[in-house]
Amino acid sequence: MEKAKPSLDEVFFPRGVAVVGVSPSGGGSFATGVTLSLKEAGFPAIYPVNPKYTELFGLPCYPSVRSIPGVVDHVVVSIPAESALALLDDCAAKGVKSVHFFTAGFSESGYEDRAELERAMLSKAKAGGFRIIGPNCIGLFVPRSRLVNSMGVPLEPGPVAFISQSGGHAQNLPFYGGQRGLRFSKSVSYGNALDVDECELLEYLLRDPDTEIIGAYIEGVKDGRHFLRVLEEVASHKPVAIYKGGTTEAGLRAAHGHTASLTSSVAVFEALCRQTGTIQVDDADELVDVLVALNFVRPLPQGTGVAVVGAGGGPSVSASDEMEKVGLSVPRLSPEVQSELKKYLPLAGSIFNNPVDTPNLASPEAMLAALRVVGRVPDIHMVVYHMGFHPISRWGGGRFSSADFLKSATDALRQAHEETGTPILLALNPATDLNGINDFLAVQEVFVGAGFPVFHSLRQAARAMARVVAWNQKLGH
User: Fold this and answer.
1) In whole angstroms, how far apart are CA 336 and each of 341, 353, 377?
2) Cis ω before 331 (30° cut-off from 0)
3) Phi/psi at 83 (5° precision)
4) For residues 5 and 131, is the Cβ–Cβ distance under 8 A?
5) DSSP class per residue in 84-145
């Protein structure tokens, strides 16, 4: 007889977490990392489980899940697959609500006996009234409940949710996205999707008041028709960006060996994204870029007109190429607009017809003047201001990371945006030397903190905005 299964709200907001397979030496083990991460995050009730020890990392350690005296709602498992069924009996006896298996070596291995083991695990979960996350995944990151699976990730809750068949992407995207200002409601790695799968997660996120934007990494789905129906419903209410893994023959083989996914053809998946109004991206970096655009670009433009503003003739030419290659336009500025710009910017060594390039455009005063003028042009729907692409603006000199410059520059960007209503995007090439990296990170941190979308190249800004504008045009926002 099956018991009623817990809701995903109960899974995401546990009162106590047991971590099975913790060891004192650590050795980079996942279970040890999760235990230390939960401590760092201030999770209130953490229970290491290992029969060899009575204390680990300043916490009482227990021989089994059922021996823990406190409430245990969620169990993280990092022990050999052969021990899974006995552990699940313990979980049923304890009355847990969810079990996350980091453990691999199940159906993704290709062996029938391991697929049979998964089926037996699911039967125990249904009979015991708990959910299974995974197996073969890193599980859950829910900042609001302090349920975390890695250290150093921003813990402020935010509007972005991410679901991923890949543990690596689920661990990395909140970290790298966090440096760009993204904050997360939930990040869920679900691996082999034995129980909780992408369809259930998407349906939950549709109703989740904490989630406004959804990103996903998907290698394959088990029920294509159901996935189509769910994605269509979700994407009609919230923006969804998907990175599809396994788009080549080698990638398809890797995806099957990674999470036992049944992958569809690339053409079918692309058609599905077009039909449902989903934004499809080509890689994890582009997924972060699109999420940054959706989160920070205000208002989201419906037109394709871009003004490129910055210092450096070569980069300005490159910017024009990058924008138009992906379907954005770089409209020529009228003689009247050019004359207006010439009132504030030097004539020598300058370009005024879009891109706008003058030697002093690395100064806050010139930034404000140029952005005010081009931001009011009717066929300009967004402005890209670029830094760090030219010898005059090379990172490492300390000029751009100084408090005086950053305050003045941020004030200029904010004032231009408020006066014109045109979104301003920043393209900051990362430093490539040790002296410059701290300056670059300081500049990025301040601009991100001020609410501006930061991209790491003109190409990345162009690709992300082309995707978002096409999506916005299709939906008619």
Assistant:
1) 9, 11, 11
2) no
3) -95, 5
4) yes
5) HHHHHHHHHHHT-SEEEE----SGGG--HHHHHHHHHHHHHHHHHT-EEE-SSS-EEEBGGG
- Asked if residue 73 lies in contact with residue 140, where contact means CB atoms within 8 angstroms, the answer is no
> Counting Cβ atoms within 10 Å, is residue 433 exposed (0-12), middle (13-18) or buried (19+)?
exposed
Containing 242, the helix (H) or strand (E) segment is strand 240-244
Residue 204: HSE in the Cβ half-sphere, 13 Å Cα cutoff: 20
Residues 6+ apart with CB under 8 A from 192: 106, 107, 108, 118, 134, 135, 136, 137, 259, 260
End-to-end CA distance of the chain: 49
Q: What is the DSSP string of 176-219?
A: HHHHTT--EEEEEE-TT-SSS-HHHHHHHHHH-TT-SEEEEEES
Q: For the chain, give percent helix, strand, coil, nearest 5.
A: 45, 15, 40
Kindly report whether the global pTM for this prediction surpasses the value 0.85. Answer: yes
Determine the residue type at 55: E
Which sign does the torsion angle of CA 350, 355, 361, 364 carry?
A: positive
The b-or-e profile of 118-136 (16+ CB within 10 A means b, else e) is beebeebbbebbbbbbbbb
Nearest one of 65, 83, 63, 67 to 75, comparing CA atoms: 65
CB burial class (10 A; 0-12, 13-18, 19+) of residue 113? exposed
Query: Residue 345 has which token pair?
Result: 């910017």
| Structure-derived torsion over alpha carbons of residues 180, 186, 192, 195, reported in degrees to the nearest 10 | -170
Q: What are phi and psi of 241, to 5 degrees?
A: -120, 130
Strand, coil or helix: 455: strand
Nearest in space to 236 (alpha carbons), one of 200, 277, 294: 277
- pLDDT tens, residue order, the chain (477 aa): 678 899 999 999 999 999 999 999 755 689 999 999 999 999 999 999 999 999 999 999 999 999 999 999 999 999 999 999 999 999 999 999 999 999 888 888 777 888 899 999 999 999 999 999 999 999 999 999 999 999 989 999 999 999 999 999 999 999 999 999 999 999 999 999 999 999 999 999 999 999 999 999 999 888 889 999 999 999 999 999 999 986 555 445 544 444 444 456 778 888 899 999 999 999 999 999 999 999 999 999 999 999 999 877 777 778 888 999 999 999 999 999 999 999 999 888 788 999 998 887 888 999 999 999 999 999 999 999 998 666 566 788 888 899 999 999 999 999 999 999 999 999 999 998 888 999 999 999 999 999 999 999 999 999 999 999 999 999 875
